[in-house]
């Protein structure tokens, strides 16, 4: 990975060198400037963070901050100030600075502040990368994701895309099964071939039958002309049976015969029509159970399920959530003509921990809805649907309860519960709960938990310490 670039802007050589020294030693790439205008000129190099001295002769820190924010609101700015101007530091926060540190900054404080600022700009950074056209690093054929489980899905698509085997896609509603079906087809050898989808739950049996097989003129009242069915249209390409479990037993028989003979007759016709198609099918039901229940033919099941791709629910790939959010913000920005580039850390925390029963489709709706509600360039907690805010509170307290045994009692003691009115979790409390739920969810594996929250292990440890959780075990 490329090193994160940090600008250090300070007219005092000694303090500038000191900051630069600490940052470089910690693996950052540092560029130094002795005044604001020079730094502004170099902004095209897209620093991740600018450490900005408050008092400088040519142009003071606040002015430089304003101009940075105007030019590139996404750049994280950390103000560096001497003790006596903390008031101005607060003013800087209002102008969009990520944080401030007081001179002389000790190494520890400097690094944690930089790390935190980078964490909170991560989502924004991903959007920026997408805008730069780096989509391919994050998405495979429109399927956004970087979790191991979704990468496994990409690998499976790669394995079958150039073959002709029938593929069965299984997964909860809204997980992206249709996207996977399309990806299999459109990344194959020749994407000029037809991709024809048939939704088996949308039509009554008779209509579905003619939709699939077509009909001859006069086959039934109203059949004025000959009609080619979707099986014919798909010749040489892919037939996608969506919601396959909903197909009636009678049509299942006809479909099976077609798969065995590779030919069929139109409704009301006798002529055999030969077609060559690859069949991809999908359902959010458990098809095997449907076989056991007698709702789905076992012989057809084995024809269709030659290769299975399981698309995992969103809650099993939570580390895709920030990336999906970034992608969706970017996707809807133009549509809504609303420049919303941020999700507040507290709102992100809720999104990261929600159960997502409706998976990516639901996430998509939530982001769109929240963007509509947002008053600024940031999605805040109060822009999220109310049921999500509520869900967050109840899971948080459940996690808290189950995590309590044997751990040091929280610093706030008895006061904590009584004061937590609905929708008013404090930032600190929210952070603590996020840590606890992440630990719980990953069975107290620090690496996984920090991944889940998309913060570094160091930040994670520091935050545990801050909340008095470092000795905690579930
Ligand atoms: N990984 C992803 N990246 C980007 N968009 C996604 C992803 N997964 C799903 N979506 C989007 O979410 C929506 C639902 O996806 P899709 O229709 O493929 O789900 P499905 O599994 O077929 O759902 P259902 O079972 O309800 O038919 C679509 O708008 C799709 O574009
Ligand atoms: Mg679907």
Count of β-strands: 18
Strand order of the largest sheet: 2-1-3-4-5
Computed over alpha carbons, the radius of gyration is: 28 Å
Can you list the ligands bound to this structure? adenosine-5'-triphosphate, magnesium ion
CATH class of the largest domain: Alpha Beta
- Average pLDDT rating: 82
* Share of helix, binned: 40-55%
Structure annotation, total helices: 22
Q: Provide the structure class.
A: alpha/beta
Instruction: Indicate the low-confidence ranges by residue numbers.
Output: 127-137, 398-427
Short description:
With 474 residues, this protein is an alpha/beta fold. The protein has helices at residues 13-25, 36-41, 61-71, 86-94, 107-120, 122-131, 135-138, 148-160, 177-186, 205-213, 230-233, 249-261, 287-292, 298-304, 321-336, 345-353, 359-373, 386-403, 415-419, 427-441, 446-453, 457-466, and strands at residues 5-9, 29-33, 49-53, 76-81, 99-102, 139-140, 143-144, 167-170, 195-199, 214-215, 227-228, 238-242, 263-264, 273-274, 278-283, 307-310, 342-343, 378-379.
Structure description:
This protein has 474 residues and is of the alpha/beta class. Helix content is 47%, strand content 14%. It has helices at 13-25, 36-41, 61-71, 86-94, 107-120, 122-131, 135-138, 148-160, 177-186, 205-213, 230-233, 249-261, 287-292, 298-304, 321-336, 345-353, 359-373, 386-403, 415-419, 427-441, 446-453, 457-466; strands at 5-9, 29-33, 49-53, 76-81, 99-102, 139-140, 143-144, 167-170, 195-199, 214-215, 227-228, 238-242, 263-264, 273-274, 278-283, 307-310, 342-343, 378-379. The strands form 6 sheets. The protein has a 5-stranded parallel beta sheet, sandwiched between helices. The chain has a 5-stranded parallel beta sheet with strand order 9-12-15-8-16, sandwiched between helices. The structure holds adenosine-5'-triphosphate and magnesium ion.
